[in-house]
């Protein structure tokens, strides 16, 4: 069980270092008020010792609206070569501290900054991608912290598939095998 836990953590740490690692991009699911679940691909930007994760986004995006309405989220990580799926259930919150946001913004590579400076709101209808205007002196950069509460590991293989559920108990993760 400890080995499986260490494997998952290692996959996430590798994803931060290696841009081609399959766990670098994951699917984040949110739900708003009375709304259909919404899925999208995001980039894993940071993970701490409690497995809290960070993503960057445009703070006007729908995912931010959703997590403001309902903090519950799910995440899906998939490595096709290893036939490994890790799903996470947890909570999300937008980072509010302007100093923290300022520090993150300043550390972003210049080339990435335009992702957070479109004048038009994400989701706005436009006639052509070339009509988007980018602000020079303002931005909509936001960071979302994800707090895992359940982690599920599933590895397909022979002689058997292995599925484990980890739950957070008094700050530490406890795993149980479950039927795949
Ligand atoms: C490869 C890839 C990586 C992406 N990474 C991010 C990301 O890190 N943060 C983000 O907000 N959107 C990212 N997106 C865009 C989202 O998938 C999504 O289209 C966008 O954020 C709007 O989502 P929303 O309207 O549900 O909030 C990425 C898209 C792709 C294709």
Summarize the structure.
21% of the residues lie in helices and 38% in strands. With 180 residues, the chain is α+β, with helices and mostly antiparallel strands. The relative contact order is 0.18.
Give the topology.
Layout: H1 2-17, E1 25-30, E2 38-43, E3 46-47, E4 53-58, H2 62-69, E5 72-79, E6 84-94, H3 98-107, H4 110-113, E7 141-155, E8 162-169, E9 172-178
Antiparallel strand pairs: 1-2, 1-5, 3-4, 4-7, 5-6, 6-7, 7-8, 8-9
The structure holds flavin mononucleotide.
Q: Decide which structural class fits the backbone.
A: alpha+beta
Mean pLDDT: 96
For the record, the count of structural domains works out to 1
CATH architecture: Roll
Uncertain stretches of 5 or more adjacent residues: none
Bound molecules: flavin mononucleotide
CATH topology: Pnp Oxidase, Chain A
What is the tally of beta strands? 9
The helix fraction, in percent, is 10-25%
Rg of Cα set: 18 Å
Q: Note the main sheet.
A: 9 strands, antiparallel
Task: Give the count of helical stretches.
Answer: 4
Overall outline: elongated
- The helix-strand sequence is HEEEEHEEHHEEE
Distance between the termini: 15 Å
Strand content: 35-45%
**Class, according to the CATH hierarchy?**
Mainly Beta
